[in-house]
Write a structure and sequence with these properties.
single chain, mainly beta, seven-stranded mixed sheet, globular
């Protein structure tokens, strides 16, 4: 079973627990979806890479990685690349599997671990909204709260202790910002950045990669869009919530 389809439990403060993982070294990532990995046994396998972006700073050959193995005979690739270790001193695990964050955020919301979101009672996923035919990741509702729309973005690029999003030009991400702005003032609109590594305490727009995104995000914040930069510790055992990062929107490139 693929780990994203396994049951997500709140056990010993883990929001997500991985199945048994295999250690190896990244040989190369290619054609976006593939990664050749040498296991500790010396065997070389090809794993599915769930992150189709540029993976800036988290795809360096010979880095230590962790992969999962599926028992599904219908899968073309049995292995999935789950995480990579970055940094020479005191390495940090960074989540690679972009299929996991939304499931983790759902547990986060079910446990009401972000007090700023209020006393909501209902959580809906993939709800159609907006003028550009979008679907919101989560919609929170209840008699005591204003409808709250939450868009989730996995964030892996870092400079020092600063997490940055995006790490490439993203017209889709720009669209989501415009859609969120269009919800105000009839609803709350939140951009939740899933910081997929435990070494970042600050979040900022990735102006170097997409200055237009940074400009749009700053304008959206000035109009009432809320930013929730959620920090997570990623380990071969599981994923733990660390709270909100500090935001820095002072200037754009």
């Amino acid at each position: 079973m693929h780990p994203y389809n396994s049951k997500i439990l709140m056990t010993n403060d883990w929001l997500y627990q991985y199945p048994p993982l295999l250690r190896g070294r990244l040989l190369k990532r290619y054609k976006r979806f593939f990664a050749d990995i040498e296991l500790e046994t010396g065997e070389i396998v090809t794993a599915h890479c769930p992150n189709t972006g540029p993976m800036t700073g988290i795809s360096t050959p010979h880095s230590l990685v962790q992969i999962s193995k599926s028992n599904n005979p219908k899968r073309k690739l049995a292995y999935t690349w789950e995480m990579i270790a970055v940094g020479e001193q005191d390495p940090t695990w960074v989540g690679v599997n972009t299929q996991i964050p939304n499931g983790v955020v759902r547990v986060l919301l079910q446990q009401h671990l972000i007090p700023a979101l209020g006393d909501y009672e209902q959580i809906q996923s993939e709800v159609p909204y907006g003028q550009e035919k979008s679907r919101i990741d989560f919609l929170l509702q209840g008699p005591k709260v204003q409808p709250t729309y939450i868009e989730v973005k996995s964030t892996t690029w870092a400079l020092g202790h600063q997490a940055l999003f995006p790490d490439t030009v993203t017209t889709r991400g720009q669209k989501h910002i415009r859609e969120l702005v269009g919800l105000i003032p009839k609803a709350r609109a939140c951009m939740l950045y899933f910081i997929n590594r435990g070494d970042c305490t600050i979040f900022a727009p990735g102006d170097q990669a997409d200055p237009n995104y940074g400009k749009l995000l700053r304008e959206a914040v000035s109009l009432g869009v809320e930013v929730l930069p959620c920090r997570f510790e990623v380990t071969p055992v599981g994923i733990r919530y660390l709270g909100l990062a500090r935001t820095e929107f002072s200037s754009s490139m």
